[in-house]
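Support request, please re-run this one:
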Amino acid sequence: VQLAKQYKGQLFAAVGVHPTHAQEFGFQRDVYEALAREPETVAIGECGIDYFRIDGDRATDLAAQEDVFLQQIKLAKELDLPIITHIRDEKGKYDAYDRVLEIYKKERPRFVCHCYSGDWEHAQQFLELGGSISFTGNITYQKAEHMHEVIQKMPMEHLMIETDAPYLAPAPHRGEQNEPLW
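Re-run finished. Output below.
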């Protein structure tokens, strides 16, 4: 928020607790609400469910992730802000996608799926809920065939691209620190 104030009109803020920090930080409603009410804040997030990086006891960490996620959804809806949704699964599974869909079908927030790596079936369900889907440099990886299918089928009005810098540099820069220029 401070940087967005400094670069007014050139940079905007999103505020939230990343799921991998949910157990450590929790959700301090008054702090995040104050930040979210700043005119430079345009979204809540990046928040969501991460089954890939678990901190300590799995059940405890996932319960904390879900609790913090639900509180952020509530704040986003109260302030009419979209959610930047983080969803990460264990390799080859889509359980986190299923869980986020369950939550979104019940809560009906405005959202974008950040750094999407799910399949087309899940993408369709997110689109049916009115969300948008954002992709990063990993769509350029040869082995990301399931994502190539999603990109080809995506309606343009719901497709977004992002750098996710410094991560997920596109080919041929894979493995390097990502730069927005790429």
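DSSP finds seven helices and six strands in the chain. The two ends are 26 Å apart (CA to CA).
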